[in-house]
């Protein structure tokens, strides 16, 4: 599938698969500007890119596992969703869960994006069917 992408900043890095599309689901998103992430303060970091997704597809912005494990930096609204109608700049809402400031440098891989198909639905109000589980949730299946 082909997806249109546009650089809205001259230094923007076009996302790519680190190991190719047969081994990776996500394409790496890079920061287009330096940023200092203070502990426990969410910050939108620009990528300098806009995309045009076809109807029925979304782009999920997800944390990079290495960044999360090694530096306690994650995507605050994970997964962030880019809707097919959005044409603005893709920004990644990063959150530093560590105790010290974290420096993002222009060009750093800060997140990954996964394009996924979704099904548009119509909600119909009515009575729900009975199930064995019922309203049980949040630990209802045991430890």
How would you characterize this protein structure?
The protein is mostly beta strands and 143 residues long. It is built from 1 helix and 11 strands. It has a single domain (4-117), classed as Deoxyuridine triphosphatase (dUTPase) (Deoxyuridine 5'-Triphosphate Nucleotidohydrolase, Chain A, Distorted Sandwich). The chain has one helix at 65-71, and strands at residues 4-7, 27-30, 35-37, 43-46, 49-52, 57-62, 73-75, 80-82, 91-96, 102-104, 109-117. The protein is globular and about 55 Å long. The N and C termini lie far apart (42 Å). The model has no long low-confidence stretch (mean pLDDT 95).
Order of SSEs: EEEEEEHEEEEE
Morphology call: globular
What radius of gyration results from the CA coordinates? 18 Å
Fourth-level CATH superfamily: Deoxyuridine triphosphatase (dUTPase)
Give the fraction of residues assigned to helices.
Answer: under 10%
Q: What distance separates the N and C termini? A: 42 Å
What percent strand?
Answer: 25-35%
Question: What is the CATH domain class?
Answer: Mainly Beta
- Report the major sheet: 4 strands, antiparallel
CATH architectural grouping: Distorted Sandwich
Mean pLDDT: 95
CATH topology, by name, is Deoxyuridine 5'-Triphosphate Nucleotidohydrolase, Chain A
Segments where pLDDT lies below 50 for 5+ residues?
A: none
Total number of distinct structural domains = 1
What's a quick, concise take on this entry?
With 143 residues, this protein is mainly beta. It contains 1 helix and 11 strands; from the N terminus they run ββββββαβββββ.
């Amino acid at each position: 599938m082909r997806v249109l992408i546009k650089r809205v900043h001259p230094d923007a890095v076009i996302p790519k698969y680190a190991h190719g599309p047969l081994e990776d689901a996500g394409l790496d998103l890079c920061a287009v500007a330096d940023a200092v992430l203070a502990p426990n303060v969410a910050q939108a970091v620009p990528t300098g890119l806009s995309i045009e997704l076809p109807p029925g597809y979304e782009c999920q912005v997800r944390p990079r596992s290495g960044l999360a494990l090694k530096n306690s930096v994650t995507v605050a609204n994970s997964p962030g969703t880019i809707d097919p109608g959005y044409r603005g700049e893709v920004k990644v809402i990063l959150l530093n869960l560590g105790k010290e400031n974290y420096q993002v440098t222009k060009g750093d891989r800060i997140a990954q994006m996964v394009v996924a198909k979704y099904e548009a639905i119509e909600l119909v109000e009515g009575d729900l069917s009975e199930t064995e589980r019922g309203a049980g949730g949040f630990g209802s299946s045991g430890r």
